[in-house]
Amino acid sequence: MDYFWLYKHITFPMSKVIIIVFTIMNNRTFNIYCDESTHLINDNHPFMLLGYVSIAYPQIKLAKEQIKAIKSKFNYNGELKWTNIHSATHSMYNELIDYFFMTDMNFRAVVVDKSQIDETRPDYSFNDFYFRMYYQLLHHLTDLENNYNVYFDIKDTCSHNKLHTLKDILRWNTAIRHFQFIRSHESCFIQLADVLMGAINYNLRIEKGEIPGKVIAKNKILEKIKTHTNISLNKTTTLSNRKFNLFFISLK
Fold first, then answer.
1. Could you report the per-residue pLDDT of 121-138, keeping only the tens digit for each?
2. Highest mean predicted confidence (pLDDT) among 121-130, 174-183, 202-211
3. How far apart are CA 252 and CA 41, in angstroms?
4. Residues 6+ positions from 34 with CB-CB distance below 8 Å
5. What is the CATH number of the domain that holds 231?
6. 106 belongs to a structural domain
7. What's the number of domains the chain is made of?
8. Which residues form the domain of 105?
């Protein structure tokens, strides 16, 4: 900022200028990239997860370049997905997880056991609860001191109707300035959210006894995340844990 130009051209008291400069210097913009995992009512999976990766706007270009470099190093050309982790891709995903925890990027997810959703209650239909989960995901870790652009992965033909509903639900959160749907192949950050949510879902399904958890590469990535976070990945973290924040919703 050219403070000399500002000083020469002000037409109101300096006290107001100080407030303006302070606001500009302290108000930052973050992009939030959201994804969903096993979120359909009849997909035969026990848990629904909504999550996001957030990153400060000035850091986006460098992070994209570094993620691209990691993929290039291991000759990996596909999308980043939890389902794509196996013995041949483990080394790349291992380095990707290390990179995430080295950066200022944050991750947050909300989780619910779908068996707890009582569809007989008119105020707790599956569709209603889906949007309540998004409210929980986005509202509580955004603050009015910063601005946020929120991007969602296009999942189906109903996405634009969902966007309208989400805008309405979050209309009182003035920190969120922009909502937009994009396709996952356009964003490495949505893909990164998929990987991290996939690890949480995989861990929960093993603990529930739904899957044996025999994929060695996925087990190693899961343990890598547990080591970095020092949490079990199966319970709510404190709101102060902003790097890797989890909220398990209980309806009982």
1. 766 677 777 788 888 899
2. 202-211
3. 18
4. 50, 51, 52, 134, 137, 138, 150, 151, 152, 153, 190, 193
5. 3.30.420.10
6. yes
7. 1
8. 28-249
